[in-house]
Write a structure and sequence with these properties.
Radius of gyration: 28 Å
Shape: elongated
Number of strands: 0
Order of helices and strands: HHHHHHHHHHHHHHHHHHHHHH
Strand content: under 5%
Length: 423
């Protein structure tokens, strides 16, 4: 019998009040169901359902399932199954939500969670809740055991929102957590489900991303495709650049033509700019239908005060509208719009610079993991466009405390404002 019917088996037995172990039990139950007006079901069907006779049958007719569910007090099997799923979810949340409760029988919870998530990806939030719980209790071994679970089709389009919600749920906890055993980081980096769910989805630009970086560095290359392998080394180089540390450019060893993900392509373009700024030509990468290719190189060029590269990249995007953009890519549009407003200002079009800048809602459209990063860029460009005020200076200083963008300096923004205000 399929495990999908286990809840029905248990509730039929609960309603019946005793085990079904024999032919006489099956006959009695058949008669009881009929007498209660819940429908007719033969005793041989009951024998097959409870495994009393060998049967290759793995699925049962909906009429049989509806009859057994009505016997248990439900309108039909669909309603019964829905109630059971909701009950299991409630029970699981109830179990892990109270701070004084230790999570026991983790293996059973993991199996239930695996089934629930693979049936409904939105339930990934439950995995986030349990992850936070285990971290709060410093149960590092349990955390490792939890991520032995298998989740289907992690990169499918319908998983995008559920995975994002899961990542946002655990990110703050993971940033603040101090691992008792350094080997836990190594072991976690070998958990395929955790790497695919969190490390490859949640690109953490926060200044306090040391656990994210440590796990990414320790992760293996072999199980993953060229996009994931390239991302690993490109992002590590990005963090090295922001810290004024040497870059290894290992991500560039994977040819651009082998990449199929535009987000990763954008990181490849950015790091290739850092390796050879003088020979860099953005136009050979530009595609009018992708907003993801420009955002990294724009930030790098701003840090390096490379106005010429900013102009070339912004010229490509200045007239693009990007209607019906995927919700997740609104974050990239924020960056592009910020730089186009800066571009307008630098070429003397103050009216359009202020008009576009005023439309940008940094809080509404920033991805959670990029908000600190975006805020520093936003305030730097605001300083360039509007000039210095004490309030803006203070906001910029405070924003940099949680961002890696220490290389963006207040005095550089003011120098740009003075250089271009009267042009």
């Amino acid at each position: 019998m399929e495990n999908n019917y286990q809840f029905l088996t248990e509730e039929v037995l609960l309603t019946y009040g005793q085990e079904v172990n024999s032919l006489s039990d099956a006959k009695y139950l058949s008669k009881e169901i009929s007498n209660k007006g819940k429908g007719d079901i033969s005793y041989n069907t009951i024998r097959r359902f409870f495994g009393l006779i060998y049967c290759r049958q793995k699925k049962y007719h909906i009429k049989t399932l509806n009859t057994l569910s009505r016997y248990c007090g439900y309108k039909n099997f669909t309603e019964h199954q829905k109630y059971n799923n909701n009950y299991k979810i409630w029970k699981l949340i109830n179990l892990v939500s109270f701070s004084n409760n230790n999570i026991e029988d983790l293996e059973k919870i993991k199996k239930n969670l695996e089934t629930i998530i693979n049936n409904d990806p939105r339930r990934l939030t439950l995995l986030g809740i349990i992850t936070n719980k285990l971290l709060s209790q410093k149960k590092e071994q349990h955390l490792l055991e939890l991520y032995n679970l298998k989740i289907d089709n992690i990169h499918a389009s319908e998983m995008f929102m559920p995975v994002t919600n899961y990542c946002n749920l655990i990110s703050s906890t993971l940033r603040e957590y101090k691992f008792k055993n350094p080997q836990t980081i190594i072991a976690l980096s070998k958990k395929d489900t955790f790497i695919r769910l969190y490390i490859h989805y949640f690109v953490d630009y926060n200044k306090n991303n040391h656990n994210y970086i440590s796990i990414l560095q320790a992760s293996d290359d072999e199980p993953y495709d060229s996009n994931d392998r390239a991302f690993k080394y490109l992002f590590l180089d990005t963090m090295s650049f922001f810290k004024s540390e040497p870059l290894n450019y290992k991500g560039l060893d994977i040819p651009y033509k082998n990449l199929t993900n535009d987000f990763v392509r954008g990181r490849w373009i950015g790091i290739s700019y850092l390796r050879g700024q003088n020979k860099f030509n953005f136009k050979k990468f530009y595609k009018s239908d992708s907003i993801l290719l420009a955002t990294e190189v724009l930030v790098f060029a701003l840090v390096k005060n490379d106005i010429a590269t900013l102009k070339v990249v912004c010229d490509c995007y200045e007239t693009n509208c990007y209607k019906n953009l995927h919700w997740y890519y609104n974050n990239e549009k924020i960056i592009v719009d910020l730089f186009i407003s800066l571009h307008f200002f630098l070429k003397g079009d103050k009216k359009n610079a202020f008009a576009l800048f005023d439309t940008i809602d940094i809080y509404k459209y920033s991805n959670f993991q990029r908000l600190d990063h975006n805020m520093v860029i936003y305030l730097f460009i605001q300083l360039v466009i509007e000039g210095a005020t004490e309030s803006l200076k203070l906001k910029f200083k405070l924003a940099k405390k949680t961002s890696h963008l220490d290389l963006l300096k207040y005095h550089n923004a003011i120098a740009l404002n003075k250089s271009y205000t009267y042009k």
